[in-house]
Design goal:
alpha+beta, five-stranded antiparallel sheet, 5 strands
Length: about 80
């Protein structure tokens, strides 16, 4: 599943970043690394972008970028 499919306040674990070029480099620089826990915490009134809590920071991503981040629900690991 991709990051844009995770429900609000549901923890997930990043499996893979599936994009290329500058956007991939940017996501990796922001901490979107395999094995990292991430939680959607805010949704804008227009539903795009969404804000995610990752590695002690809040990062907003557009839906088109969030679709490139594959995740697994943290509940699957418990």
């Amino acid at each position: 599943m991709s990051l844009d499919e995770i429900k609000l306040n549901e923890k997930a674990i990043i499996k893979k970043v599936e994009c290329q070029g500058n956007i991939k480099r940017r996501l990796l620089d922001l901490g979107f690394i395999k094995g990292t826990e991430i939680t959607p915490i805010l949704i804008s009134p227009s539903k795009d972008p969404r804000a995610f809590y990752i590695r002690g920071s809040t990062i907003a991503l557009r839906k088109e970028d969030a679709k490139n981040v594959l995740v697994k629900s943290a509940n699957e690991f418990q």
